[in-house]
Structures are given as C-alpha cells and as structure tokens.
C-alpha cells in the first residue's frame, strides 16, 4: 500500500519502455514518492523490464494505477503540472522545478490534490495533454540539448519535491569524533615547535617568532578531533625516533 504521505501523484503519459518506467519508480522512491500513475504504456502492463530496473522500488509498480487517457489520470486532481522543454504556444504559467514543487507543497498542505505529468520518451506530451495542466514545469537545461530521459526528469522533480517538503540539512560532518580542546591543540603546537626548533626549522633566527605564529595559526584553522591530534603527535614521535636511530 502507498505510504499515505501527502504528496503529488507522478503521472507517466504513454510511457514507451518498461525500463524507463522502472527507473522512474526507483527515482520516485529515492525521494519518498510512491503515487505512480500510468496511461496506456506502449508495451502493456505489467512489464517485466520495468521490474528489473526498479531495483527495490517494485512496490510502486505493483501499486501503479493505469488509465486509458490523460484526462482520466488527472480527473481527481485540483492542480496539475506538465513537464515539457518545448514551447507549446499555450498561455500558462511556466515554473522551474524548484518553484513548482514549492508551490505543490503549499497546495498539498492546503488540502489540494496535485499531479505532475511526464510525457513519453520520444516526443513528450501532445498539446492535448498540456491543455489539461494548470502550469508548466520547464527545466533550465542546455538549450542546444534540452531532451531529458523520462527517469532523469522524474528524478529531478522528485529531488525538488524532497527539498520543498522536508527539512534538509545542507551541511554536516558524518561520524564526528570528539573535537580536540584548545589545550590539546596548544600541546600539539608546543610539541611541533620544540622538535622543529631542535631540527633548525626556524631559520633565520630573527624570523622565528613570525614563523611560529604562522604555524600556530595553521593549527587553529584546522578542525582537529582528538584522534587527529593523537595521529599528529604519533607522526612527530616516529620521525624523532627515526632520526635518533640514524
């Protein structure tokens, strides 16, 4: 059964290849979308090639609703977006995927039922399909090569839906260790200064204070963890042992 999470239905209009349907299902489920609708798949339905490409998202294929026409596929929706790269000569709002999915999230939060239509692989939707949409989603692609694979387009819009509907952490440190304290970094700096001075690194003598300041500044710029500090101490310890053996 579908998750029941409020979300837009993704409607694949007359999809041609089962592989693309399966890849689209995989892209949808990557971003938590599981309301797939199909209109008259060229090679019939169900399609084993779609299952092979779904790679873990086969449930979407099993639960996909199949319709005889575009009108039937969206008749229960209050707002419909159509993805197309070509000018259609139809007067409609044209939105980027980002803006469209932000708009869709607001509408769904208000209780509306929303759908996004994706055209067949070869030539996209006909104007008769587009005429049923309330707005057009236009991806800002290279104008000299604007054709997107069906699954690519689904993945792109699904990603923007995720961004619009879920709190995204834009930067994090995976598996962070305990950060080194200022005292631990200071002891590291002192250790290196001591051995570098013994090795004659701070030369000439009148430039030594400036060189030491720069070295301290280098340590402070580095976001060091305690294991980092231990490794750096170990490196210096082994270098000294190697020198003494020599």
Describe the protein's architecture and organization:
This protein has 246 residues and is an alpha/beta fold. The protein folds into 2 domains: 157 residues, SPOUT methyltransferase, trefoil knot domain (Alpha/beta knot, 3-Layer(aba) Sandwich); 64 residues. It is built from 10 helices and 7 strands. It has a 7-stranded parallel beta sheet. Helix 5 packs across helix 7. It is elongated and about 85 Å long. The termini are far apart. The mean pLDDT is 92.
Secondary-structure topology with pairs:
Layout: E1 9-13, H1 18-30, E2 36-39, H2 48-54, H3 58-63, E3 65-67, H4 70-74, E4 79-83, E5 94-95, H5 97-109, E6 114-118, H6 127-130, E7 135-137, H7 150-165, H8 182-198, H9 208-221, H10 226-245
Parallel strand pairs: 1-2, 1-6, 2-3, 4-6, 4-7, 5-7
Tags for this model:
11% strand, alpha/beta, 7-stranded parallel β-sheet, elongated
CATH evolutionary superfamily of the largest domain: SPOUT methyltransferase, trefoil knot domain
What's the helix count?
10
Class computed from helices, strands and strand pairing: alpha/beta
Into which percentage range does the β-strand content fall? 5-15%
Shape: elongated
CATH fold-level name of the largest domain: Alpha/beta knot
- What is the H-and-E element order? EHEHHEHEEHEHEHHHH
- Structurally, the number of domains stands at 2
| CATH class identity of the largest domain | Alpha Beta
Short description:
The protein has 10 helices and 7 strands. The protein is α/β, with parallel strands linked by helices.
């Amino acid at each position: 059964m579908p998750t029941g999470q409020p979300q837009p239905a993704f409607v694949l209009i007359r999809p041609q290849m089962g592989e693309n349907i399966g890849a689209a299902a995989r892209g949808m489920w990557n971003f938590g979308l599981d309301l797939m609708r199909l209109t008259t798949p060229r090679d019939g339905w169900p399609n084993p090639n779609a299952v092979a490409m779904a790679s873990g998202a086969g449930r979407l294929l099993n639960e996909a609703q199949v319709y005889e026409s575009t009108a039937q596929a969206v008749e229960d929706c209050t707002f419909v977006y159509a993805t197309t790269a070509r000018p259609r000569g139809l007067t409609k709002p044209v939105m980027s995927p980002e803006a469209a999915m932000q708009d869709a999230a607001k509408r769904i939060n208000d209780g509306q039922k929303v759908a996004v239509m994706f055209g067949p692989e070869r030539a996209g939707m006909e104007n008769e399909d587009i005429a049923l949409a309330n707005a057009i989603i236009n991806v800002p692609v290279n104008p000299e090569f604007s054709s997107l694979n069906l699954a690519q387009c689904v993945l792109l819009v699904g990603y923007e839906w995720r961004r619009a509907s879920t709190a995204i952490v834009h930067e994090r440190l995976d598996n962070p260790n305990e950060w080194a304290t200022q005292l631990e970094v200071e002891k590291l700096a002192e250790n290196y200064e001591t051995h570098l001075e013994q090795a004659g690194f701070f030369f000439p003598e009148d430039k030594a204070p400036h060189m030491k300041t720069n070295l301290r500044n280098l340590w402070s710029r580095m976001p060091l963890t305690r294991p980092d500090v231990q490794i750096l101490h170990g490196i210096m310890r082994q270098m000294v042992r190697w020198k003494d053996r020599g």
